[in-house]
Amino acid sequence: MQRAKEMMKVSDGSLLGDPGRTPLSKKQGAKWQRPRLTRQAVMRCCLVKWILSSAAPQGSDSSDSELELSMVRHQPEGLEQLQAQTKFTKMELQSLYRGFKNECPSGLVDEDTFKLIYAQFFPQGDATTYAHFLFNAFDADRNGAICFEDFVVGLSILLRGTVQEKLKWAFNLYDINKDGYITKEEMLAIMKSIYDMMGRHTYPLLREDAPLEHVERFFQKMDRNQDGVVTIDEFLETCQKDENIMNSMQLFENVI
C-alpha cells in the first residue's frame, strides 16, 4: 500500500513527461542535469522488488541491506556474458537470478505473471492492459515467454541505460504492432493503459480526456512531416530536445 501511495504522488501517468509543461529547470532558473538513478530508485522498480522479494531469505524484511545476499549460490549460465551485456554487477545478477528461478522454476516468465505483478503493485487501478503491453516490449522474439537473459537485459536498459537507450526502448513500447512507426492510436492505447493502472486516486486528479490531450501534444511536436505517424528518428530528436521529457526519464521506475 505504501508503494501505491508513492506512485500516486510522483507519476503523471506518462513514461515521457508532458511536452506542454514548463520544465522544472526553467522555472527555477537552474541548469538541467541528466538525472541519476540511485540504488534506492532501482529498488522501487516493481519487477526488481518482485524478483528480490523472492530471492531474500525467508523471514527477512526485504530491506536493501538484506537484499545484498552476500552468500548467493545460484547463478545463471554465461554470467560473464550477462555482465558484459548489462550494467548489473555479478552480485546483482546472482540475486536477480535466484529470485527469478524461485518465482519461475521453468526459467521463463509468461504474460499472466506480469499481470499478477502489476496487479499487486497497482491495486488502486486496472493494470491488465499495461502489463500486456509491457510484456510484449520485453518479449523481443514474440514467442509468449521471457527468459532470464532477456529479462535482465531489458531491466538494465530501463534502469541504467543511457537516455537514448531508454528512449529507444520506450519507442518499442509505443510501437505496439512493431512496424517501426508510432500512430496516434498506439500511443493513446499505451497512455490509457497507464492511466487505468494508476487508478482514480492520482494527485492531481486526472481528467477523462487527459490521455488524448497528452497524445495530441506529443504528435504536434513529433510528427514533423505531418504524415500521421512518428518514426524512431522523429521520436529521438524531439524527445532529446525537450527538457521536460529528459528530466522525466528518472520516472521510468515508477511504472516499470
TrEMBL record:
<dbReference type="InterPro" id="IPR028846">
    <property type="entry name" value="Recoverin"/>
</dbReference>
<keyword id="KW-0813">Transport</keyword>
<dbReference type="GO" id="GO:0005634">
    <property type="term" value="C:nucleus"/>
</dbReference>
<feature type="domain" description="EF-hand">
    <location>
        <begin position="126"/>
        <end position="161"/>
    </location>
</feature>
<keyword id="KW-0677">Repeat</keyword>
<dbReference type="GO" id="GO:0008076">
    <property type="term" value="C:voltage-gated potassium channel complex"/>
</dbReference>
<keyword id="KW-0406">Ion transport</keyword>
<keyword id="KW-1003">Cell membrane</keyword>
<keyword id="KW-0472">Membrane</keyword>
<keyword id="KW-0633">Potassium transport</keyword>
<dbReference type="InterPro" id="IPR002048">
    <property type="entry name" value="EF_hand_dom"/>
</dbReference>
<dbReference type="InterPro" id="IPR018247">
    <property type="entry name" value="EF_Hand_1_Ca_BS"/>
</dbReference>
<dbReference type="GO" id="GO:0000978">
    <property type="term" value="F:RNA polymerase II cis-regulatory region sequence-specific DNA binding"/>
</dbReference>
<keyword id="KW-0407">Ion channel</keyword>
<keyword id="KW-0106">Calcium</keyword>
<dbReference type="GO" id="GO:1901379">
    <property type="term" value="P:regulation of potassium ion transmembrane transport"/>
</dbReference>
<keyword id="KW-0851">Voltage-gated channel</keyword>
<feature type="domain" description="EF-hand">
    <location>
        <begin position="162"/>
        <end position="197"/>
    </location>
</feature>
<feature type="region of interest" description="Disordered">
    <location>
        <begin position="1"/>
        <end position="33"/>
    </location>
</feature>
<feature type="domain" description="EF-hand">
    <location>
        <begin position="210"/>
        <end position="245"/>
    </location>
</feature>
<dbReference type="Pfam" id="PF13833">
    <property type="entry name" value="EF-hand_8"/>
</dbReference>
<keyword id="KW-0479">Metal-binding</keyword>
<dbReference type="GO" id="GO:0001227">
    <property type="term" value="F:DNA-binding transcription repressor activity, RNA polymerase II-specific"/>
</dbReference>
<protein>
    <submittedName>
        <fullName>Potassium voltage-gated channel interacting protein 3</fullName>
    </submittedName>
</protein>
<keyword id="KW-0631">Potassium channel</keyword>
<dbReference type="GO" id="GO:0015459">
    <property type="term" value="F:potassium channel regulator activity"/>
</dbReference>
<keyword id="KW-0630">Potassium</keyword>
<dbReference type="GO" id="GO:0005267">
    <property type="term" value="F:potassium channel activity"/>
</dbReference>
<dbReference type="InterPro" id="IPR011992">
    <property type="entry name" value="EF-hand-dom_pair"/>
</dbReference>
<dbReference type="GO" id="GO:0005509">
    <property type="term" value="F:calcium ion binding"/>
</dbReference>
<dbReference type="Pfam" id="PF13499">
    <property type="entry name" value="EF-hand_7"/>
</dbReference>
<comment type="similarity">
    <text>Belongs to the recoverin family.</text>
</comment>
